[in-house]
Write a structure and sequence with these properties.
Enolase-like, domain 1; Uridine Diphospho-n-acetylenolpyruvylglucosamine Reductase, domain 2; Uridine Diphospho-n-acetylenolpyruvylglucosamine Reductase, domain 3; 3 domains; 5-stranded antiparallel sheet; about 270 residues; alpha+beta; 4-stranded antiparallel sheet; about 25% strand
Length: about 270
């Protein structure tokens, strides 16, 4: 690893000041991506600003169907939260299948969506739920937040502080995990609210998370796995890599969508 300066932020405002005063500072949440990148010398920040001890970035609030999850909340805390499970069980299920126990107890929801890995789970969940990403300076709709592979609408000096959403009537998440990393080769989150159905796909798109409109239209007519019989997804904008071809992922999108709907229904 390269030499770096370590700072323990005491508040979000303190973190922003430290970030602005550094030459090439990076925020550290769980460090599941950043520390690994530093070890392999793919990243060499001048300063690390540690957010793990900032109290305002911790906790989950559930008021009826209105959910707020602070950015520093770990995957394990999301997975185990009883009130959240009653309001939106699929987001807890999603969190419970991220990585391994070490990753789940260190990684955070804010760190995940700030990094926006194309195979991360949370982007699909938040996009399908129509969530809002809250920062230290504004609120951003999930539809506008995820802008591409490893890219977001965050501006320089902006810090994710929370995510919030209204729990849907029904929701489900299913993914086909890489057996080693447990990243999603393809993951699909479905959410139904009234007559509207939103479906988001992670792990498959060559530009990151995306909405699957053909599947949304089919499920809006009948929210049942059988509604997806005969529905196909184009492989044109999907990834091909050593793990799976674009055609294979296109098929997986439909298969995982069926499983996600089945989970949502019971």
């Amino acid at each position: 690893m390269y030499q770096t300066n370590y700072h323990r932020a005491s508040s979000v405002d303190d973190a922003v000041k430290l970030l602005k005063s550094s030459d090439d500072g990076k925020l550290l949440a769980g460090g599941m991506t950043l520390i690994a990148a530093m070890k392999t010398r793919l990243a060499a920040p001048s300063d690390l600003i540690d957010l793990r001890h900032v109290g305002e970035l911790k906790g989950i609030s559930v008021a009826g169907k209105e959910v707020t999850i602070a950015a520093g909340t770990t995957h394990a805390e999301v997975a185990a939260h009883g009130e959240l499970a009653r309001a939106c069980h699929a987001i807890c299920h999603l969190a419970s299948h991220i990585g391994d126990p070490h990753v789940r107890h260190m990684g955070t929801i804010g760190g995940s969506i700030a990094n926006n890995d194309p195979a991360a789970d949370y982007p699909a969940g938040l996009l399908a739920l129509g969530a809002t990403i809250v920062t230290n300076s504004r609120e951003i709709a999930a539809d506008d937040y995820f802008t591409g592979m490893f890219e977001t609408a965050l501006e320089e000096g902006e810090v994710v502080t929370a995510v919030k959403f209204t729990a849907p009537d029904q929701c489900g998440y299913a993914k086909f995990p890489n057996p080693a990393s447990r990243y999603a080769l393809t993951g699909v989150f479905v959410a139904r609210r009234g007559g509207e159905v939103r479906v988001a796909v992670t792990g498959a798109g060559d530009d990151g998370v995306f909405r699957a409109t053909a599947i949304e239209e089919a499920l809006a007519g009948s929210f049942d796995p059988s509604a997806l019989e005969g529905v196909s997804v184009s492989a044109d904008d999907l990834m091909s890599d050593i793990h799976a071809s674009a055609d294979y992922r296109a098929n997986l999108v439909v298969v995982m969508a069926k499983r996600a709907v089945a989970a949502a229904k019971g």
